[in-house]
Amino acid sequence: MKRAFMCAFQGIIEVLRKERNFRIMLVCLVIVLAAGFFCKLSNIEWAAVLICCGGVLSLELANTALEAVVNLVTGEYRELARKAKDTAAGASLVFAAFSAVTGLVIFIPHILMSFKIK
Asked: What angle do CA 32, 33, 36 make, to 5 degrees?
């Protein structure tokens, strides 16, 4: 079991080192967490934010894994390979977009309240 965790962490570190989008998402995660503490989110708001953040990062890891497998299977251009890669990237994008909307729904009222705008 320890080996399984080590392999998982090694995969995360590999993606962190080589994938710019994943690093950008981690920077966004830090900003969102800081904003959450600043806005004093409720427990349910924290749950929604953390589920969104975890989902976005997880889908990006899965997308990277799928791209690696497709590249391993074929080094040449194939329409099905392109479709698989684009669809996985699309899944990541859809979850990120819905997470951004969720973030706006949660954070905008807190921001407006902090400026006493109603």
From this structure: 85
Is 60 a residue of the active site? yes
Token digits of residue 89: 């990237």
Catalytic residue among 60, 67, 76, 79: 60
Q: Tell me what the mean pLDDT of segment 85-93 comes to.
A: 96
> What CA–CA distance (Å, rounded) separates 109 from 18?
37
CB 88 within 8 A of CB 21: no
Q: Where are the alpha helices (DSSP H) in 1-78?
A: 2-18, 20-39, 43-73
Cα–Cα dist 53/42, whole Å: 16
Please tell me the pTM assigned to this model.
0.89
| Position 37 confidence tier, pLDDT thresholds 50, 70, 90 | very high
| Contacts of the segment 39-43: beta carbons below 8 A, 24+ positions apart | 39/107, 39/110, 39/111, 39/114, 40/110, 41/106, 41/110
Residue 118 pLDDT more than 60? no
